[in-house]
Amino acid sequence: MAKGKNKATNSTTQVRIGGVGGQGIVLAGRLLGRAAALFDGKEAVCTQSYGPEARGGASRSDVVISNQPVDYPYVLKADILAVLFQEAYTRFRDRLAPGAMLIADSMLVQPFEDEEEDVYTVPATQIAEELGGRMVANIVMLGYLIEKTGVVSRESLEQAIRTSMKQQHIEIDMKALDAGINYARSEAGA
Amino acid sequence: MAKGKNKATNSTTQVRIGGVGGQGIVLAGRLLGRAAALFDGKEAVCTQSYGPEARGGASRSDVVISNQPVDYPYVLKADILAVLFQEAYTRFRDRLAPGAMLIADSMLVQPFEDEEEDVYTVPATQIAEELGGRMVANIVMLGYLIEKTGVVSRESLEQAIRTSMKQQHIEIDMKALDAGINYARSEAGA
Known about the structure:
The structure is a homodimer. By secondary structure, chain A is an alpha/beta fold. The first copy, chain A, is 43% helix and 24% strand. Chain A is built from seven helices and six strands; from the N terminus they run E-H-E-H-E-E-H-E-E-H-H-H-H. A six-stranded mixed sheet of chain A has the order 2-3-1-4-5-6. In chain A, helix 1 packs across helix 6. Residues 1-9 of chain A have low confidence and may be disordered. Strand 2 (43-50) of chain A pairs antiparallel with strand 2 of chain B, so a sheet runs across the interface.
């Protein structure tokens, strides 16, 4: 996948979002999938696996987005890996495709000193707290992710939020989305 | 899959829950998957596919529950199909495994006159309304489903609800679960 603000040029993009229970990891994946399929005209499959791994602590949500029907919904090598929890980082960091983008919450994840991948960091949880609550850190992360990768359009993600979330949450979700996008833009201009 | 209140004896059970946006279909699948994997000691994969189909109106949530790691998470032939919306019934009714159990919300689904499958009906939405709101029809349906099939234990589903839902929703969710289980039991004794 091309880095920077480009539409992914290959036809299938594998996205993994990793975190811990209560961070809205599954919801984040679902919003991304719905944005892609319902509003960007693509196909998307969201998968959550529960097993011995899930009993550990790290949770994950996988989204495969494609121009064609998705034959195989498991994420084998992520093109985009976003992590909001240290254990999710340590567990999933070795499953990246060449040229993948690894994004980490800068408050909750400390990348290894010998990490070979470029790690993009965003203070998603800190920004969320400033907006009113940690529960929107997942949306801040999504804003950053889509601005950096273009995997779905901002308009489609906004529509997915409007049609998925309860009315009383939409305002703060939109602020969180804006904040994530703006953080990515401020980096680009720095 | 054996009908009646038995543990499924084959190692993999494919469950599909079909409905329409706003019915909590994805949540129902997730609760089932978490109950199986986190509290029943099995493996579970939950999948939501979004595509041209999702743009139609019927939504679905697939859960594969197994004693072993799940190689293929798509539901090809459902062992259990629960539908809470007419279009979900018409769309998914032909994807049943031999001996499958088809469960329909009796208020929202009208089975075809020439339906060859035995259709189990439960007034999940009506029961939910009596409890205080349609939003728990999905939990009533789950109660009925687990009592009829034994695919996960009641205790595990209760734990999944307690650890997944917001505190203020747990009481009504538990009532909804009880109501679904009791409806199934009253049928069995009729």
